[in-house]
């Protein structure tokens, strides 16, 4: 299996293959609109603006699994992200990112890049997975790791 084998639905319900992103460095993030880490949307957008023209994409996957901090509809989520944080990077339909109901993409990411002490479970909103341009999952970053802290790592991968 490869990251490029997975299908996902955009926030508007259109199915896309992650193979559409082949050759790009990806930052895949589970997000939420009512979380203490929600301001990271702004930092993610800044990161996206800096690198989007250099084969880089951020893929945002809303999830309501952590204290129901993403209760809205796809339309609500998209509007919130655009109005409050200027988000233009791709957003996808709300999914589960942990447990038996986790989307297969997040099951794969979690196994490829375990967290602290080898744990595979996604522990909270704004967990970030960095994928290189060959589709290899490079690293997982904790929710508290702000987007600006990833800038130099992404810059190195793009060289």
TrEMBL record:
Membrane-crossing segments per the record: none
Active site: 35
Matching PROSITE patterns: GLUTATHIONE_PEROXID_1 (PS00460), GLUTATHIONE_PEROXID_2 (PS00763), GLUTATHIONE_PEROXID_3 (PS51355), THIOREDOXIN_2 (PS51352)
Annotated GO MF terms: peroxidase activity
Listed InterPro entries: Glutathione_peroxidase, GPX_AS, GPX_CS, Thioredoxin-like_sf, Thioredoxin_domain
Gene Ontology annotations of biological process type: cellular response to oxidative stress
Keyword entries, A-Z: Oxidoreductase, Peroxidase
Highest taxon in the source lineage: Bacteria
Family: Belongs to the glutathione peroxidase family.
Lineage: Bacteria, Bacillati, Bacillota, Bacilli, Bacillales
Domain Thioredoxin, chain residue ranges per copy: 1-159
Gene3D superfamilies xref list: Glutaredoxin (3.40.30.10)
Name recorded for this polypeptide: Glutathione peroxidase
Organism: Paenibacillus antarcticus
Oxidoreductase as UniProt keyword: yes
PANTHER family: GLUTATHIONE PEROXIDASE
């Amino acid at each position: 299996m490869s990251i490029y084998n997975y299908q996902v639905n955009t926030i508007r319900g259109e199915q896309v293959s992650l193979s559409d992103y082949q050759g790009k460095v990806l930052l895949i993030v589970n997000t939420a609109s009512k979380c203490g880490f929600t301001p990271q949307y702004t930092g993610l957008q800044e990161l996206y603006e800096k690198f989007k023209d250099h084969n880089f994409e951020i893929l945002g996957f809303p999830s309501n699994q952590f204290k129901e901090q993403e209760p809205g509809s796809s339309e609500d989520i998209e509007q919130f992200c655009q109005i409050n944080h200027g988000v233009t990077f791709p957003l996808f339909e709300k999914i589960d990112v942990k447990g038996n109901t986790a989307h297969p993409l997040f099951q794969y990411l979690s196994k490829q890049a375990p967290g602290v002490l080898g744990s595979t479970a996604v522990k909270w909103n704004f967990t970030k997975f960095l994928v290189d341009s060959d589709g290899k999952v490079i690293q997982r970053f904790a929710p508290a790791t702000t987007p600006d802290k990833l800038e130099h790592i992404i810059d190195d991968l793009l060289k």
